[in-house]
Predict the structure.
Amino acid sequence: ILADLGVSSMQIDNPKRGFSFKVDGPLDLRLNQETGISAAERLDTITREELAGMLYENSDEPYCEELAKAITDEIRRGNRIDTTTKLRRVIEDTLDFLPEKEKKDTIKKTCQRTFQALRIDVNQEFEVLYEFMEKLPGALRPGGRVAILTFHSGEDKLVKQALKEGYKSGIYSDYAKDVIRPSAQECAANGRARSTKMRWAVRA
C-alpha cells in the first residue's frame, strides 16, 4: 500500500479552490466542493479560542493567539473573510509589528501555516488519517508493506506513533525508525517534494 497524503498540485494552483494565498480567490479550501462547509463559512462561526487551538494544533503557528484575535475581531465587525486576499491582509496587518528584516519571510510562512491549518480542519484530514492507520493492519497480508508520504509535522507525528505502537504490539515485524527524506536532486527537480517525509512498515 502506498499512501500519498499530499494535496494535488492542480488543486493548489487553481485560484477557484482557495488553497493559495498568492492569488485572489474564494476562501474555500475543500478538497471536495460537493460536501462540507468552506473555510470562509467555518470562520463565520468560530470562537477565538477554537481558532487559536486550530492554528496551533494543525500547523504549530507561533502567532496563533494574535491571529485568532485579529480574525475573529474582523468578522465581529461585520467584515466577512471570504477570499484568500482578505485573509492574507489580516495576517499582514497582524504581523506588522515585526522588524522589517524578518517581516516578509515570517508573513509568508504564517500565511502557509494558516491556510494549511484551515485546510486540515475543513477536510477533517487528521480524522481521516486516524481511521486509515486504524484499518491499515487489516488491509495488509503477512509480509505486506506500506509506505506513507506525509507533508507536515502533524501528519508525520501521527503516522510515526501508529507504526511504532503497531511494532511494539506485534502488528508490524519492522518499521522505519528514521524518516526518509527526498534527495537534494529530487528537491531541485520538484520544489514541492522538499517537505515530504516517508515512513514504512512490514506486516507481521
Notes: Residues 100-122 form the longest helix (23 residues). The CA atoms of residues 116 and 183 lie 24 Å apart.
